[in-house]
Design a protein that fits this description.
The chain is an alpha/beta fold. The protein contains 16 helices and 22 strands. The chain has 3 domains: 144 residues, ATPase, nucleotide binding domain (Nucleotidyltransferase, domain 5, 2-Layer Sandwich), CATH 3.30.420.40; 171 residues, Nucleotidyltransferase, domain 5, CATH 3.30.420; 194 residues, Alpha-Beta Complex (DHBP synthase).
Length: 543
């Protein structure tokens, strides 16, 4: 059975996924093709065409189409949906506009699908159930807790429940007015950043400050773990800013408050789940699950012993979750654990070479790619690295990365400067999987998707200073020889020279751009940046 999963175009991050008999064949976000960050509110037609091409099939070969949405929505039902949403804490005026917008986008989507996939069965999976399925079905856990958190999806902002061998028992639905995603986005706007885009800046800024006692009562957690959020207080909060460095003024403490409140609420919800179930494994998804510090706090709390976080936890992941859910309803075949996120496009050597030659840039063919690039990194050269299939999700995991020397503290600011990022934002280490516990405190779970925060051991901070944040933490990606042998070999080669089994890794893009997708994107980004070298396949490109 072949199932095409699609993100509903009311979403901020659109994507397409193809699974065949429970196996993920391909998954990619639309932004990688359009070069528009997130590709919000569009039909992911480039992604759809890619996943079909990757599977070497045509439109008529698809058995079912799965959409991460509770639809189909009918125009004459708008007022019904409005009433449900208002009862969940939203306002009448906003909801009428919201559901009219959904109807218009969905009508356009259905026309597209009917034109391209004639008579193919279309199945709708509610937004947050799709989020939950995207994590639980590929976690490797037979039984677990699950929690989804985001701004909102249709009538709710999250789900809490128990997963048991393919079945979802929903314990609690979070109302719209309990939205932790909207709360954090409101703080993002308050700090002068872009909501739904720059939340990572708030997370990175938070460790420089301390939570304000005056903002503590913005959130109230009731005895039944219901959450009350005073959004108006957030919007009306005054911030003292010098307009330059937020690590030196009131903004750092406001960011610390946002992070503190998010973690406080998330821990309360996890505590509630564990108290009623006794289960200590947790699956996380939804846009808020991309908050690495929140995830690290949950793991460090001791409430759970194991965790799986969907690497495409944003709305792109609903395409995967919807497809997996529909598959499970029609097949006894179980999906394998998701050990990696290398599910996007890749390019053949002749394509790569042709694009390089067309660029007019200088290049040479490497005899030992891993060893040669490790040597450059050890000499403090910054290397853009494009290898194999692109990652699904917003984290670069050694396929579309910028790499640097983690032992040189100055690389932290230098790489941020090259990417036109704020100097104070942290950068992450990619580390050999079985060596991570030497460097990080209580590193008792794998972190292949760079979605967990750990404290760096005191005696190791001086060994990898470029990837240690101001609070002594790091956000590692653990690298396995099984899932990415070339990247693993590069890190091993770097260890021979640099003495540590890790490299600095950040996404291969510049400010405001999606991660590079194809060789042309990589060559253009490299050409217009101060990156020292670019390695695509076995080719080393330089200026």
């Amino acid at each position: 059975m072949r199932i095409l999963g699609i993100t509903h175009p009311f979403s901020m991050n659109t994507a397409a996924v193809l699974i065949e008999d429970g196996k993920i064949i391909a998954a990619v976000e639309e932004e990688r093709f359009t070069r528009i960050k997130h590709a919000p509110a569009v039909i992911p037609h480039y992604s759809i065409e890619y996943v079909l091409k990757e599977a070497n099939i045509k439109h008529g070969d698809i058995d079912k189409i799965a959409l991460g949405s509770c639809g189909p929505h009918a125009e004459n039902e708008i007022e019904k949906f409005v009433r449900i949403a208002v009862s969940s804490g939203s306002t009448l005026e906003f909801e009428r506009k919201y559901w009219k917008m959904i109807f218009m986008r969905e009508r356009k989507l259905m026309n597209y699908l009917n034109n391209h996939f004639n008579k193919t069965d279309i199945v709708f999976v509610p937004h947050h159930l799709a989020h939950a399925a995207s994590a639980c079905y590929v976690s490797g856990f037979n039984k677990s807790l699950f929690m989804t958190l985001d701004g909102r999806g249709e009538f709710e902002s999250g789900l809490l429940g128990i997963y048991d061998d393919g079945e979802f028992e929903i314990i609690r639905r979070l109302n719209i007015d309990e939205s932790l995603g909207l709360m954090y986005s409101s703080f993002t706007s308050l700090l002068g950043y872009r909501a739904h885009t720059d939340e990572g800046k708030v997370m990175g800024l938070a460790p420089y400050g301390r939570p304000k006692k005056t903002l503590e009562d913005i959130v109230t957690i009731e005895t039944d773990h219901r959450i009350k959020i005073d959004q108006n207080r957030i919007i009306s909060t005054a911030i003292k800013s010098d307009g330059l460095d937020p690590t030196k003024d009131d903004r750092k403490d406001t960011a610390a408050s946002a992070q503190h409140l998010l973690e406080k609420c998330a821990l309360s919800l996890v505590d509630y789940l564990t108290s009623i179930s006794g289960n200590t494994k947790l699956c996380l998804a939804g846009g808020s699950a991309l908050n690495i510090d929140m995830n690290g706090a949950i793991l460090a709390s001791g409430l759970i012993k194991d965790i799986f976080i969907q690497p495409a936890s944003n709305d792109a992941g609903t395409a995967l979750g919807a497809a997996l859910y529909v598959h499970r309803q029609h097949s006894s075949i179980r999906s394998s654990p998701m050990k990696h996120a290398y599910l996007g496009p890749q390019y053949e050597e002749d394509e790569i070479k042709e694009d390089i030659e067309d660029s007019g840039l200088k290049y040479e063919e490497l005899s030992d790619t891993a060893a040669d690039i490790a040597e450059l990194i050890s000499k403090d050269k910054i290397v853009a690295w494009m290898q194999g299939r692109a990652e699904f999700g917003p984290r670069a995991l050694g396929s579309r990365s910028i790499l640097a020397n983690p032992t040189n503290f100055s690389m932290w600011k230098k790489v941020n400067m090259i990417k036109n990022r704020e100097y104070w934002r942290p950068l992450a280490p990619s580390i050999i999987e079985d060596r991570a516990d030497e460097f990080f405190v209580n590193h008792n779970v794998k972190s292949p998707f760079m979605l967990l925060k750990f404290q760096v051991k005191e005696d190791k901070k001086r060994e990898i200073p470029a990837v240690v944040h101001v609070d002594g933490s790091a956000r590692p990606q653990t690298v396995s020889s099984e899932t990415n042998p070339l990247y693993w070999n590069l890190i091993k080669e770097f260890e021979k020279i640099g003495g540590v089994p890790a490299v600095l890794n950040t996404s291969f893009n510049l400010k405001g751009e999606p991660i590079v997708n194809n060789p042309q994107d990589a060559l253009e980004t490299f050409n217009f940046s101060a990156i020292d070298y670019l390695c695509i396949g076995k080719y080393l490109i330089y200026k």
